[in-house]
User: Fold these one by one.
Assistant:
Number 1:
Amino acid sequence: MRTKLEMMGQLRSSFSELNISEGFEFDTEIVTNEIKEDCKSLLLSNEQLTTLMKDMDDAIRNGLRKDTNPSSIVKCYVTYVQDLPNGTERGKFLALDLGGTNFRVLLIELGENNYFHMESEIFKVPAHIQTGKGTELFDHIAKCLAEFVKKHNLDSKNALPLGFTFSFPLRQVGLTKGYLNSWTKGFNCSGVVDEDVVKLLKDAIKRRKDVEIDVCGILNDTTGTIMSCAWKNPNTRIGLIVGTGCNACYVEKIENAELFDGDQSKPHVIVNTEWGAFGDDGKLDAIRTKYDREIDEDSLNPGQQRFEKMISGMYMGEIVRLAIVDLANQKKLFEGRLSEQMKTKGAFGTSYVSDIESDKANYRETLKVLNEMGINDPSLVDCANVRYICECVSRRSAHLVSAGLAVLLNKMDEKSVTIGVDGSVYRFHPYFHKLMVEKTKQLTKSDIKFDLMLSEDGSGRGAALVAAVAVRDELPLKTNGVAAK
């Protein structure tokens, strides 16, 4: 009698001909053993993750120290953000959120009784500007800012307070001064690396002569996530982004942040780890696959951001595509047949991974994705194998993030912590949250409790809140007779 696997393996007809019933559920038994064997390199044991955690903990501690920071791969930039929202912030504030191929301008109004109103507009950064001159990038941003101010009838004669989310590796030397360390996410504008991006923005605004904007603070999206979540939950101590890129920040004690030269009277400062660069010194080599190496070598920044390249939405779909192509070339998928789309770099978007793993039954989403990729006659076994590849890649991503979070939680050693999270991978992947919670619990000290809180527009709302806190501290308000500090 033939086995179920043998019978499924012989099915090369279309799904309409298979006539699968509505009640069909996934059966991992039909994933072929050779696919499972080839995907083993994508599965990480707790022993491997614990080794990674020790190396990352060392890298973070080195990044915090004056004597070791210059050689540290994880830079741990101090953000100069020391105060979280306390509810006394009032007024209208602008936010600029730049972190990818699109950027947003926001207008946020804060009032009594937790009143909050937000309006925003998305602007595109054309491809030629992403890799052109830095002045062209900031002139384009200033133009869009001016259009937004005019559209919303804001008083352009008085300086409008603005928080600037700049989601690229940034070395800050003040709340309103930060130098770009390196471009990521496909950007490569000339004349910006090692320059103060706040000054570049201010200069572009000044060149226009038609709008007055006061940049009150620069931050990255992780800091914005902390600020946004802390506005609702003051227990927030970590900000995490798992989207196009991956990064985390956390609240550190002043005495541990040796490079901080700001207000020493306050006990804490937010530290932007820039952990995406972890492994650039070879510490991840033992767990990197041939797909990771190919993606890195073929990227705009080879040798950089290796941790991020194993996790984030910019690369996850491409890892899956490379695995599919590799296995098909070995005749382990689709009988060795591949479409031109599947052979095309970047064609398999990370959203496809989420779609495939969202399948409830019948592999309908998987079939739809494969059809869009030019694979028109996959067998049931092919679909099961593709889904398994997606699961291995996304599970590894979630487990790597979990290891990083466990390092921060164990280092802070606070007994209850809220982690603010944002980013498209975390938001839209059907199991990412669950995978992260389960693995982080396994890797964190047993007496530490944590919860994950989805940030409501952290990079936008958080930027405005940085500006609001800065204005609040310059002009303390009085609420119920108590001055806000």
Number 2:
Amino acid sequence: MRMLTEEQVRAYLQRLGVAEAQPPSRAFLFELHRAHVERLPWETIDIFAGRPAAIDVRQSVELMTGGRSGYCFHLNGAFGALLRTLGYQVRWHRGGVQPKGEAPRINGFHLGMTVELPEEPPGERIWLVDVGLGDMPYEPLPMQFGDYAQGPLTYGLTASGEADNGWRLVHDPLGAFSGVDYAPDVVPGPGAFERQHEMYSTSADSPWINLFLVRQRHATGSNELRGCMWNRRGPQGMEATELRTMADWLGVLGDVFGEKLVRYSALEREALWNKTLALHETWKRAKGR
């Protein structure tokens, strides 16, 4: 896999708010992970706009260094490339997200990642590193089965019933999905997921074609912008705010999620808002609101 240039590493770290590269360590891995989920949101914006970005590593890194973002194939693809360039031992895996009320699966519609730290003691050498789930862990999880509290959310790590020697991330009951199952087999990179990306990006059956969704984690909770609804989860529970104007919507996108819509002109941003508002009004009528 192509490594990042020194210029790309500097730009990526600058986007993360990290001053400089350090030798591989658990502490630096945690710092990078926290910065990534705070500053680079999981989002469906380009798919919603009908302008999906390719998932090859080169373009995914350009998204991150260019002030944009993406979803799991972009986020974990780019982050994995950064970590490898910094000297970490990275492995990509096929995964599958289990929506609430549906069965577990490993269908390749999620790109997962593990990182090995050979210098750490047994039990702390391999870590589940996933910055591509949106409603995701704030920090890496050790590949040891158990429960792990992070802010107001608790995650579980167990054996997967979907693949021999696979593992399952069990989400907090308050989370946006039930869990994620991962296969142990190593895949060469995001290019192995082109078929899944095409479905998510262009198919009428994609859940993201008509859903404007941006998610971000932080130390004490998470933020989600779903259409015109800004949902904030923290220690005191969930708070929802309806954004009724384009100015408020763009303000939350920029101030909370760091998403400035740099790829879009003023007219295109207005078109995105109008589409989002129309779908929001349809949703409200369906709910009798």
